[in-house]
Design goal:
2 helices, mainly beta, Immunoglobulin-like, 10 strands, single chain, 10-stranded antiparallel beta sheet
Length: about 220
């Protein structure tokens, strides 16, 4: 049973990590990023030394600007949609997590982020609401890693998360702003998704699939 089945829908306002652009590999999040719109699909495969593997796909991802209530240059919004899927080889347990890296050029008064919209966990699950607010407190040259949700692999080694018109409102942000998706997988034979412990049966496989950076107008 997935963490969501046990605990219900996670609020996106739960966890935010602040890290420098150099640490999280965001050299590409500059003024040359793509404008919001349809974004490229992505795929990555990671393998262990004993033949284990986890594949990750990003499909149907798009981002579009939306008007904000504040209606000023320091407040901007966008909506995101996309499907993120992971498939592990036989016997590998683990989880798929979807996150977003969001950066702002200038903090003009304590950046805060509001979230809304919906997400689906897989084809058989119900869609739940997604709401909350996060105070980012970014400094120039930094980004926020915002946890959206995660899902355990099924008995067949598959996990899928779908974002549907999930809205982001970035307030008190001046100058250039950019974002990109992050689909992270971790797994192994004998891996416990409850506490992250390992039985020692095989290789621990970790992989991160980054989406294409896009500007937030």
């Amino acid at each position: 049973m997935s963490k969501f089945s046990k605990l219900g829908l996670r609020r996106a306002a739960g966890a935010v990590a602040i890290a420098s652009a150099a640490v999280v590999g965001l050299a590409g999040m500059g003024a040359g990023d793509a404008a919001a719109g349809k974004l490229a699909n992505g795929y990555k495969k990671a393998s262990g030394i004993e033949g284990e593997s986890i594949q990750t796909w990003r499909t149907g991802e798009n981002a579009y600007p939306i008007a904000t209530v504040a209606n000023n240059a320091a407040s901007r919004g966008f909506v995101l949609s996309g499907t993120y899927t992971a498939k592990a080889s036989k016997g590998v347990d683990g989880k798929l997590a979807v996150k977003y890296l969001i950066g702002c050029q200038v903090d003009v008064g304590g950046i805060d982020l509001a979230l809304g919209g919906s997400l689906g966990l897989d084809a058989d699950s119900l869609t739940g609401g997604l709401s909350g607010g996060i105070s980012l407190g970014l400094a120039p040259g930094q980004v926020a890693l915002v946890d959206i949700t995660d899902k355990d692999f099924s008995d067949s080694g598959v996990a899928a998360i779908q974002l549907s018109q999930t809205s982001f409102y970035l307030n008190n942000c001046g100058g250039f702003a950019s974002a990109r998706s992050v689909a992270k997988v971790i797994g192994a034979k004998g891996y416990s998704t409850d506490d992250g412990s390992l039985s020692g049966e095989g290789t621990l496989v970790q992989s991160t699939l980054y989406g294409k950076p896009f500007t937030i107008n």
